[in-house]
Automatic annotation (TrEMBL), chains A, B:
Keywords: NADP, Oxidoreductase. Residues 23-317 form the Enoyl reductase (ER) domain. It comes from Tistrella arctica. The keyword NADP applies. InterPro entries: ER, GroES-like_sf, NAD(P)-bd_dom_sf. This is Zinc-binding dehydrogenase.
Length: 383, 383
């Protein structure tokens, strides 16, 4: 047997989310038996796993949170809520499936297969889903060994946000741009991107939605921070684009006019710097905005005052990592480990237990998707 | 001297377009002296040059054609028209410059420099602007020698439309797609694309705007022709996408919802064929729509029911040719010459003189941008 420690079967607890054919979402905790690890696997006791925007879609779907009903037991609580009929069509792919949730997390290796004994007792970070659980069986190769002085909380968010921020910079370079624009820039992700750009000397135009967020990023040394709700936003954005030369943007908002406004301001900034001859097709400089989120679910609207050299499209971390290949991905991961407590530090609003994830008053907090608030789950809290 | 024929200076006539600071456009014919060709140049007597949609923007700008005033002389007529104030901002780059017009054309070489004597008397096609003129001095290397049995009219449109249609197919292949969608598909360009796809066995979904255009393309052997104004358009489009597997589209319309509708139908078609597991990010198959025209000048509107693997952007022939490099460009050009009278045959509504280009009743005809109507200028007609 590969097991090098305990021999009795572990009992775990796992969070599941299910959309039912009759138009409800059910989120519950269930007991599960934790299998023994195979030779190349470990069992991790998860102590920190964040609620990212990318987790919320699977966790709560498009539920109407005004309709929450509670159920289950004190140990294994459950909730359910109605899904608006118009939103059910998009749920077809997950109907009546009890799905585990939680993209990433960190914890301590408590069992290890024969080939992974060196990890026993070590703190590791993981990505791969099903992290909202007390234990996770995972291949040793899919664990990132954290430095000795790093806690699970330090490493809980070391994949999605850090690799997304580094992926943006990498995409910028690979596609021939030299500076970039970011929206919802006061987020944990935005703060990381700001630290990366300051450290690497890359021009970054931060777009936020209120004066507090402007102050926050200015306090962190950001040179260009613009409030999209201020009346002179378009002019200020164009100035910042002239100064930085940014011709690529990453937009978390997704819907409405912002992506198009960024492209228009890029074209105006290029025209302001240009000395070439007239072309009725606009500038020949390619302008790109990638939508990596959907905080605003309205249609994307793009004015055609941007010439012909432009693109808008979706951007996701995992397809990006596949595109660049394992060597580049490893380089990015190594940087995250090396700068875990500085460039890639995350800050959390609250640490909650698995049972608290299902409390309506807690749901009201983490479901707001407000920039700058982020919750950390400790599935072994209060156990 | 490089001149191998006449020694007296040629007097030419050239069409010019100018936007004035006081908000008018002036289009006129002027007399010009035609310089002697350098050693590597030829002088071409232009006998056929088309009015493409890509020429109209430079020729008439955003003029209000209800305000046309005529002027000049019988030999050298001129017109002017008002430009709506809102459209003047976009004219900044061409203000008060007298610009020659006409992207492509064909004619007979009447003078040749020492290194280009082999072209004397031959019929050639050209691209490079300033074709709305009686004569054009051009580098021999920029001429495409036409087959002996080809007239200037046969070769007049052998760059823009043929290379655009071939460029779409080339882009489809280079970006990993196997079939494509085309809008405004009854145009000369659309008919060429249909012939290419039939010949090469490529799936093509043609989108047109009325029943006559459906009948026209069906009569030319097109398998999938959809009328975007019919009530079951979305369902029929999805069916055609399931059948062809098309995941890239080229859209001449540009504004409004059509590009987004195509992406939505692609995503629905992929979902209908898929057997994989649920992802809240939608399919992982990249869906792309390129806008290569702007028949509709409203903003582009894209619903977010298309997953995250998608892109929308501008597409232009010349940047495409630069991207693929001279060898690919030459391969495409060779195919055009070889299939000039079959795959790449163009059809014209009327042949007009340079003076007729400035007649209000003729302008009313060629400025309509109606699919299937195309005018050919013969600058040496009636001379």
């Amino acid at each position: 047997m590969a097991d090098t420690t305990a021999t009795t079967a572990l009992e775990g607890v796992e969070l599941r989310s299910k959309v039912t054919s009759d138009g409800r979402i059910e989120v519950s905790l269930i007991r599960v038996d934790v299998p023994e690890p195979a030779a190349d696997e470990v069992v991790v006791r998860i102590e920190a796993t964040p609620i990212n925007p990318s987790d919320l879609g699977l966790l709560l779907g498009p539920a109407d949170l005004g309709t929450i009903e509670t159920g289950g037991t004190a140990d294994l609580p459950a909730i359910s809520a109605a899904i608006p009929p118009a939103a059910m069509k998009a749920m077809a792919g997950r109907l009546d499936q009890s799905l585990p949730v939680g993209n990433e997390g960190a914890g301590v290796v408590i069992k290890a297969g024969a080939d992974a004994a060196h990890l026993l007792g070590r703190t590791v970070a993981m990505i791969g889903g099903a992290m909202y659980a007390r234990y996770r069986v995972i291949k040793a190769a899919d664990c990132l060994l954290l430095p000795d002085d790093a806690s699970p909380a330090d490493g809980a968010s070391c994949f999605v946000n850090p690799l997304t921020a580094l992926g943006m910079v990498e995409t910028m370079r690979r596609e021939g741009h030299t500076a970039l624009v970011h929206t919802a820039a006061a987020s944990n992700l935005g703060q990381m991107l700001n630290r990366i750009c300051l450290k690497d000397g890359i021009g970054l135009v931060n777009i936020v939605r209120n004066a507090e967020q402007v102050a926050l990023l200015r306090g962190m040394g950001a040179a260009h921070v613009l409030d999209s709700t201020s009346p002179d936003f378009t002019d200020r954005l164009t100035e910042a684009l002239i100064e930085t030369g940014a011709t690529i943007g990453f937009d978390a908002i997704g819907g409405g006019r912002l992506a198009g406004q960024i492209l228009s301001a890029m074209e105006a900034a290029i025209a302001a710097r240009a000395t070439g001859s007239y072309s009725r097709y606009g500038s020949s400089v390619h302008k790109q905005v990638y939508l990596y989120g959907g905080l605003d679910t309205r249609p994307v609207e793009i004015q055609r005052n941007i010439g012909m050299a432009w693109g808008v499209g979706g951007w996701l971390l995992f397809p990006f990592l596949q595109r660049v290949g394992p060597q580049v991905a490893q380089r990015l991961r190594d940087r995250v480990a090396a700068e875990l407590k500085t460039t890639f530090a995350s800050h959390y609003t609250a640490e909650i237990s698995l049972a608290e994830v299902l409390k309506p008053e807690v749901i009201a907090g983490y479901s707001k998707r407000a920039t700058g608030t982020k919750y950390l789950i400790n599935p072994n809290k209060g156990v």
